[in-house]
Write a structure and sequence with these properties.
The chain has four helices and ten strands. It is α+β, with helices and mostly antiparallel strands. The two termini are 17 Å apart.
């Protein structure tokens, strides 16, 4: 597929504002479900190299900080020989239409590569970190990314499910297939919200794994 072209953010302020939202987010800004996080395995034999590229956010559970920050979210999975694996999260500011970015260092669990840990690198704010899983993907048409966090006392937990695609507009068949997989894993697809991509701004990903 043809990869879109880079449009770097003009200002750092929107990225810093998003980071503040990330740090201060509350449970009521996400989907809250009863009990502890369910145990769901990551994709078996997940291949980080095949996963590289630009993944568009097609549908997701409600997340307040993403809704407030902007639209047209794109998660670029990248590799650099000196830096290793990392992601660049691009989004379009709702008001000004500027493209903003945050970069995260990535590490993959040795025993379960589909379980990823990230730390915010650019801007450098190392106390912002977390984990999520790639539950299933065909490496092109769709991917299911999932994050779950137990709340205090284990009485409830928060979940975020992202339906991603390297296609800006995946087919209805692809979306249905991804949702059927999510349902088979015990996830509630009725909570997925279609994301606005009508103002898609051209962003960059270079397919050469060694030169990002």
């Amino acid at each position: 597929m043809a990869w879109p072209r880079l449009c770097l953010p003009a200002l750092l302020l929107p990225s810093l504002l998003l980071l503040l939202l990330l740090q201060g987010r509350r449970a009521d800004g996400q989907v809250v479900l009863p009990g502890r996080c369910p145990s769901i395995p990551s994709k078996k034999d997940f291949d980080p190299d095949k996963f590289l590229g630009a993944w568009n956010e097609i549908e997701r559970y409600f997340v307040s900080y993403e809704h407030l920050a902007g639209i047209c979210w794109v998660e670029n999975y990248l590799f650099d020989a000196g830096r290793g694996y990392y992601t660049r999260l691009d989004w379009t500011d709702r008001l000004l239409g500027h493209v903003n970015s945050i970069e995260n260092a990535l590490t993959f669990d040795e025993k379960e590569p589909g379980r990823l840990s990230y730390v915010v690198e650019r801007p450098n704010i190392p106390f912002l970190s977390g984990q999520y899983q790639i539950l299933e993907t065909d490496y092109i048409h769709y991917a299911l990314a999932w994050q779950c966090k137990d709340l205090p006392l284990g009485v409830a937990h928060t979940e975020i499910l992202w339906l991603l695609s390297k296609m800006q507009i995946p087919t209805a068949v692809t979306i249905q297939q991804a949702k059927e997989v999510a349902t088979s894993l015990g996830l509630d697809t009725s909570l997925l919200i279609h994301q606005d991509r009508t103002r898609q701004t051209t962003l960059a990903s270079i397919t050469n794994h060694g030169n990002y």
